[in-house]
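We close this part of the discussion by returning to an individual protein. The amino acid sequence and the backbone structure tokens for this protein are reproduced below:
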Amino acid sequence: MAPRPSRAPRPRFRFRSARPAAPVASPRVATMLLALSGVLLAPAAGRAEGPPPPLPAPPAFLTDVEGPEALSWVRARNEQTFSVLEHDPRYAGFHADALRIAQSHDRIPAPETLRGQVFNLWQDAAHPHGIWRRTSPAAFRSPAPDWHTVIDLDALSAAEHVNWVWKGITCLEPAEDRCLVLLSDAGEDATTAREFDLGNERFVPNGFRLPRSKQEIAWEDADTLLVSRDWTASDGAGKDGAASSPDLTASGYPFIVKRVRRGQPLAAAAEVARGTRSDVSDGPESFTDGSNHRAILIRRGVSFFADEYRLVTPHGLVLLPLPPKSDVVGLVAGRLIAKLNEDWHPASGAAIPAGSLAALPLDRPDAAPELVFAPGPRQSVDAEAVATTRNRVVAAVFDNVRGQGWSFAPPAAAGGRWTGTRLPLPDNVAVKLADAGPHSDGFFLQIAGFLTPSQLWQADAVAGTASVVKSLPAQFDATGLVVEQLEATSKDGTRIPYFIVHRRDMKHDGNNPTELTAYGGFGVSSVPSYTGAIGKLWLARGGVYVLANIRGGGEFGPAWHEAGRKTQRQRVFDDFAAVGQDLISRHITSTRRLGIRGRSNGGLLMGVEFTQHPDLWRAVIIGVPLLDMEHFESMAAGASWVDEYGSMSRPEEAAFLRGISPLANLRAGVRYPEPFIFTSTKDDRVGPVHARRFAWTLQQLKQPFFYYEDTEGGHAGTANLPEIAHEQALEATYLTRVLMD
């Protein structure tokens, strides 16, 4: 979600407790935070030529994430921002609208099916931390389910004086009677894990309890866990997420897997597998199918995109013959399912192209793999959009960035072929998997479009049927609004598609306030979504919203990502600028009315556009960003993203990183737009130091800027719904002042 979602925890169908993620926030928070993009108050800037003169180095105190001098600097910057934006007469209305939308009881509860019940984490005004609750499947389908609270995070936080943020739950299969609840202090990636009895609905006295660390956990049996974590330090990976222990990789993630038995102290855990400190991370993963086959794997993350998988057997570890760039995503009918991000030329059987889904027999991993699905030239499927049910593989497939739902059936006999069934879902929407598991062929999908309020559909993977279960009421008036898909031509001639949402009667006079956003990295696809805050605070006020499908993402498969990786990344920046220029050429907007917004890896994109094209944008919102690309490898989890960005240790890549690093390319004498920069003190993935150094340097250049650092929230930037609404209101105020006034 920092770059590629740290490989962020997924829905229950494939839970990863702390596998390294990209600089991307969780899907729920990322969607909510897409609410408004940035704008600038300053006039368009001119770009100077030649190498930038040296600037003073940012002071060392900024790197002491929670040091008193650093936090004093942060408070001063926050107050400076609040004194302008919160005192704008429109802020209060924006905040009220954003909070009302965020806390609305009309929101669709995200389902998680366990033990035949539907569970959900719910936050609202009365429960800012959230309650984990359950209801019956029949009640869930009703308009007003009767929910029963299982865990009250607000009560737990108050009792323990900790700002607990829910990070997920992983349960023992197939019984699902014992689970590990993962909690984070204020939203950081590091978690604590506590055993929970789902039948008696209580934390288990003297049960498994793993202290704070970035950690990955899998149940081996009712009394045994496989765990990778910081075994040396009692408090995990250090406050900034950087490696501070011999048990952590240079990226700050664990690489030693041990077997933890019930009643045994962590110090007595026996080693099962060990990677190296040069790995990104190593950890266990567990999969179960509808016939109760189980596969416990040790995944060695050699690099961010390359993994080795070993199957845990009674006789030791068995290396699976998967290509390095692949993700194991499930188990069905005794077959492991993998998403391939490179071509596979197995020792036996036909080659399988990159982007495909493949099946590998669990009892004969050296046998010829089976092709489950091969996407067409304009199709793609993300690993995060694949799941297994009792008897099927289900996937959300994108065709020209428009969603479809598919179910794939295993061959009826040896040597047969997998067959696919497209589910009867609406066209021209985004499709996401919401919940699936090995105990049923029923599963949930989420459907949404820019102007189509989110719907939750329940599908049957065997019957190939699907129907609406819940619909979100419209959160803004979309009357007169339309969605188009246009294309721009990038610098090298590549056609770059983008979505644009605008009023049907929009005049092509160059005077329309426009927000342009993209991500462009780690193979993450940017797809349409329904976000009430964007609609209410921007579209309904006459703004134009644009989502660009630039290279570096996964919209058109692995090749679209590869085209923007490492020293080819300038293509990503050129693609984005080309979309901006295309909007101006079509007289949709102008530099006076054009603002851009991005977060995490998208924050890096904004920083580069800020320095490379300061005269093209009037507004720039730079969220939880990477900005110091000369030093990103030594900051928080930055070393894990060398496979995406390159390394300063390699001369060619170092020269490129210096050339595009936003911090290194700030210079005196340039009229930059006035940016809005936001980050989080508790971000242990990208960290706040990038944003601090960038803002401090702008100070030295006497360039105006807005800076907001939430002291909580982790890489999501915010920890709860009121904090989300606060940030959205700040951005809406900034946006309106700059682009609409």
